[in-house]
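Section 5.1 Outputs to date
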Amino acid sequence: MSEADRIKITIGTRGSQLARAQTEEVAACLREVGAVPEIKTIRTSGDTHTGPLAAAGVGVFVREIERALLEGEIDLAVHSMKDLPTGEREGLMVAAVPERVDPRDALVSRNDIGLPDLPPGSRVGTSSPRRVAQLRAYRPDLVLVPVRGNLDTRLKKLSGGEFDALIVACAGLIRMGLEHRATERISFDICLPAPGQGALALQVRKNDEGLCKLLSRFDHPPTRLAAAAERAFLARLGAGCSMPAGALGIIEGDHLVLQGVVADLEGKLVIRRRAEGSSEEGEKLGRELAQEVLAQGADRILEGCR
């Protein structure tokens, strides 16, 4: 096949090192099937906003990339699944969800001290309400400090002594070849991840049937089904990534175990439930689990965070 005959695909991504690394993973897969990918960096609202991300609205890390996709500037968008808002995206679709990497959160500490052994009063950097709420429930004696910036920026701040430890996603460390930096991979019993954490969403225009077909070979059904259940839980809560809610779906065969949590930011009230059922009915299971959590008082927690 000549260069002229190969499929040229322009991929849109954020400009962070992590976003570029995970996009390059997808580009490498496309090269293996004969495509010619070109990566285009797009600056998003989340990259330029300096205040709390919740104030910037929904989809701060995908908004401009989706616009470029709809306007034909790019053919494919690679998103972190946890950044993609729930609900239909008009004119767009997720053509594939590759196999996720470790969805756990990780502790990275300056002195290689694990989460249970950090001295009281240790400064731990995280700006995620989900992590703050669950960590305060587990270790109310820690001082949780907001930290902004891409993963590499946050790690530099840690090395510079601004914090004693950081909480980050395992997936980010893995994709940047930094998994050795993880002092501890935090148990799901302590902290459930963001819905879709560790998974990528390969988004295209709905009418691009050829690209949809090409990308379908990279789809990992267990990851797609688990992420769909987690996101259905989040959607039914009426919450987004700026809310103190987490979910995790684990699939074995055609069986799904789904856990969900909502906790207040002080860590004094943690509502955690689980449900089991068919993986093919994961979205229904996610909605039902959310309804159960809401009935236990999560509605009041979430209302107080809006």
